[in-house]
């Protein structure tokens, strides 16, 4: 595995890709070696993914500096990616800072259930990627590159994996495989893959024994690859996923529990005698209630086409994709058991009338979301072996997002629809790389995009029925300017400026009985970066560094705003451009082949985000806990940092090849990933403690068979993995009657639990 970042001048031929040990990336639309690209990229091959036990997008944060992923409600809601300290402040897939691509084609939605077994590599590209990848990449992009079917014979593999976890009621398993066959000799190939897997439940609910934390997926995909000659190819892919997950391992921790456990506490501002713990305690997964909720269901269809044609040394390509996803969620309003005698802490307190059960916390809140999108890109590349190289292209993206809550269904609105939003993005883009000398290269890239968010009239929609169509248009230019200097064939420096844009957003308010749209302008990220990429000892050691300073303008946050609508000034709660931030950080990644048998790997990332807006704003009362008291209830974010985003993360690992035994090559790998402490509340009053997670794998490899024994989280890290999306603060389910001890504004805290230690075995048969 190589973990790197840097500069630019030679395109790689397909033959080079096969014969070279260097990792190939396509972060700038050309095949180039990782060490030659002036960008901060963590790239992992298929072997890296397997040996490091990277099974889904959540595991990528273990080995990627400055990548964190909050998954509060399990993999149902893992899209709150944070890269380089910048969180999106929403789990809405349309407004993320990072997007995921398959072969350069956008794949929207919640993506933790993607099967990574059939990938050639994964590229995590850091910093604004709007100039190349387009919308929703204003802090980075993740590109999954699949294998092109090839060969003259039928080939494939089957894989089985099984494991058990400490005190867990379920086993985990994986059964899957791929078969590839030539349909027309040297011209047409087909590949079909399928898998069934389960991440077993880690606990049972207190109010009925329902599984907690179980995740199940059935997936099938197919690829047709047509390449009749070296100048022309068509790659068609289709995929279907069927996900069924239980209620997630997320609890609401109560003040009584903090006192009983002896954790240090302190009163918080606006608490009227109430208090918070100094740090978020480890979640108790054996104290979760589901209120009969079913959990989460998702069905996703994805299709893509990649077509390339060479005209001499020029390449014309088309990339198109289609996504259709339908999702339902049925989660408890509060994940605690509400019956007398059920909750371990409050079951008897209910019977003794020591607490009041908060009515709003009872029951479930079922919802649905359906979205469809399509994307199309046409691009022309100049020859890659010239001192002056360029690319130019056009892009189109369209999406519809339909959401609702069944509890708000009526005869006129049987589904309980609340929104029916559309989005359309049209863009032109281009890039120019100019080698002034063999050492010095200037790169100029940019994208001009016109995006329209709109919604048709929806007179029967719940919450905010609309009688007329609404739309809003934004236009933005996203440039990237890079200067790279190759001091020696093994050492390179680069400096760049780039801009990222996060889409405009729409909300709705009711004024005088009429629903009106309220818009937030696009959020903008300005990134200033320097980096160095270095190879030593004939490439045995790589050391790559990147430092960055970012400014965020027009940051989108939910707040209470004064708006003038139809000549009337009103106070509304909606997403607005009320924030600004600065971020300072660095990344270091290294790979060292110490001996032919021993390889060491490591990385470290630091990103400190601070709000810089000094203007007081009004936010929801639940999020104000811990802020200084003000006459109008407003808060000032200046100097504070977002919740759920650590300043530090790191990774260290080693792999040692043992002497061959009976035709098998044994190897032992041990990895440790570090996640620094972070704030669990927006007021920065409660922290989540730092944590190490250690994995190990003993692998036996032969020409046809791989067998492995593995352990995940073997040291039993039980630190919380996150809090609520906007912070841990939550309304309490049980309100203490003893206000002398607990105060009158009692606040509780969300805490999401990691999976416990897991031990198992895996076998792969190749044919």
From TrEMBL:
TM region positions: none
What is this protein's record name? TonB-dependent receptor
**Organism encoding this protein:** Novosphingobium guangzhouense
Q: What's the protein's topology in the membrane?
A: Multi-pass membrane protein
Give Gene Ontology CC terms.
Answer: cell outer membrane
Q: What is its main location?
A: membrane
Domain TonB-dependent receptor-like beta-barrel positions: 280-713
| Upper classification of the organism | Bacteria, Pseudomonadati, Pseudomonadota, Alphaproteobacteria, Sphingomonadales
Q: Which family does it belong to?
A: Belongs to the TonB-dependent receptor family.
Keyword Transmembrane listed: yes
Spell out the Pfam families in the cross-references. Plug, TonB_dep_Rec_b-barrel
All copies of the TonB-dependent receptor plug domain together span: 34-140
Q: Please provide the record's keywords in A-Z order.
A: Cell outer membrane, Ion transport, Iron, Iron transport, Membrane, TonB box, Transmembrane, Transmembrane beta strand, Transport
- Claim: Aminoacyl-tRNA synthetase is one of the keywords in the record: no
* Gene Ontology process terms (BP): iron ion transport
Q: Which PANTHER family match?
A: FERRICHROME IRON RECEPTOR-RELATED, TONB-DEPENDENT OUTER MEMBRANE RECEPTOR
List the subcellular locations. Answer: Cell outer membrane
């Amino acid at each position: 595995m190589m973990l790197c970042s840097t500069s630019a001048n030679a395109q790689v031929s397909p033959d080079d890709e096969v014969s070279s040990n260097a990792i190939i990336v396509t972060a700038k639309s050309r095949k180039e070696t990782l060490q030659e690209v002036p960008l901060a990229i963590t790239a992992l091959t298929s072997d890296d993914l397997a040996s490091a036990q990277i099974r889904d997008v959540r595991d990528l944060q273990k080995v990627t500096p400055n990548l964190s992923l909050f998954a509060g409600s399990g993999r149902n809601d893992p899209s709150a990616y944070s890269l380089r300290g910048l969180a999106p402040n929403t789990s809405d897939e349309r407004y993320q800072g990072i997007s995921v691509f398959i072969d350069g084609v956008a794949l929207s939605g919640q993506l933790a259930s993607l099967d990574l077994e059939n990938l050639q590599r994964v590229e995590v590209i850091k910093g604004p990627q709007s100039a190349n990848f387009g919308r929703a990449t204003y802090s980075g992009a993740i590109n999954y590159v699949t294998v092109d079917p090839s060969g003259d014979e039928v080939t494939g593999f089957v894989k089985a994996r099984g494991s058990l976890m400490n005190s867990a009621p379920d086993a985990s398993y994986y059964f899957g495989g791929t078969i590839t066959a030539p349909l027309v000799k040297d011209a047409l190939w087909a590949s079909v893959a399928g898998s069934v897997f389960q991440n077993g439940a880690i606990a049972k609910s207190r109010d009925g024994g329902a599984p907690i934390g179980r995740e199940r997926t059935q997936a099938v995909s197919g690829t047709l690859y047509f390449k009749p000659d070296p100048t022309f190819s068509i790659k068609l892919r289709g995929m279907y996923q069927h996900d069924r997950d239980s209620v997630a391992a997320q609890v609401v921790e109560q003040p009584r529990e903090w006192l009983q456990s002896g954790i240090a506490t302190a009163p918080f501002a606006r608490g009227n005698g109430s208090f918070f713990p100094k740090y978020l305690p480890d979640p108790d997964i054996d104290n979760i209630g589901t209120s009969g909720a079913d959990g989460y269901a998702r069905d996703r269809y994805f299709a893509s086409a990649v077509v390339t044609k060479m005209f001499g040394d020029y390449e014309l390509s088309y990339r198109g994709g289609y996504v259709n996803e339908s999702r339902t969620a049925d989660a408890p309003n509060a994940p605690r058991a509400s019956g007398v005698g059920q909750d371990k802490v409050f079951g008897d307190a209910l019977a003794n009338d020591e607490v009041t059960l908060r009515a709003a916390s009872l029951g479930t809140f079922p919802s649905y979301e359906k979205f469809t999108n399509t994307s199309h890109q046409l691009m022309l590349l100049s020859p890659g072996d010239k001192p002056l190289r360029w690319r130019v292209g056009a892009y189109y993206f369209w999406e519809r997002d339909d959401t609702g809550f069944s509890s708000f269904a009526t005869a006129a609105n049987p589904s309980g629809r609340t929104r029916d939003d559309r989005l359309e993005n049209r863009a032109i883009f281009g890039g120019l790389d100019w080698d002034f000398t063999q050492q010095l290269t200037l790169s100029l890239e940019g994208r001009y995009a016109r995006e329209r968010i709109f919604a048709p009239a929806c007179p029967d929609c719940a919450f905010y029925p609309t009688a007329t169509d609404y739309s809003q248009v934004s236009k933005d230019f996203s440039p990237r300017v890079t200067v790279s200097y190759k001091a020696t064939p093994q050492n390179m420096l680069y400096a760049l400026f780039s801009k990222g844009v996060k889409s405009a957003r729409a909300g709705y308010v009711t004024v005088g009985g009429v629903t009106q749209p309220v818009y937030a302008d696009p959020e903008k990220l300005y990134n200033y970066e320097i980096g160095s990429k270095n190879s030593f000892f004939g490439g045995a050691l790589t050391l790559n560094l990147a430092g960055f300073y970012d400014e965020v303008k027009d940051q989108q946050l939910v707040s209470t705003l004064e708006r003038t609508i139809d000549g009337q000034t009103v106070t509304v709660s909606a997403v607005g451009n009320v924030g600004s931030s600065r971020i300072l950080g660095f990344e270091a990644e290294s790979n060292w082949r110490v001996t032919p048998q021993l390889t060491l790997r490591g990385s470290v990332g630091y990103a400190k985000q601070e709000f810089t807006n000094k203007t007081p704003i009004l936010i929801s009362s639940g999020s104000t806990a811990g802020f200084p008291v003000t006459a109008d209830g407003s808060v000032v974010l200046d100097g504070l940092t977002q919740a759920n985003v650590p300043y530090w993360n790191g990774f260290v690992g080693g792999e040692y090849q043992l002497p061959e035994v009976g035709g098998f090559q044994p190897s032992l790998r041990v990895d440790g990933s570090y996640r620094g402490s972070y704030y669990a509340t927006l007021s920065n009053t409660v922290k989540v403690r730092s944590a190490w997670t250690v994995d190990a794998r003993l692998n036996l490899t032969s020409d046809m068979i791989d067998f492995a024994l593995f352990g995940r989280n073997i040291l039993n890290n039980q630190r919380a993995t996150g809090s609520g999306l906007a912070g841990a603060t939550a309304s309490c389910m049980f309100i203490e009657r003893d206000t002398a001890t607990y105060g009158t504004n009692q606040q509780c805290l969300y805490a999401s639990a990691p999976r416990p230690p897991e031990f198992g075995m895996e076998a792969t048969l190749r044919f």
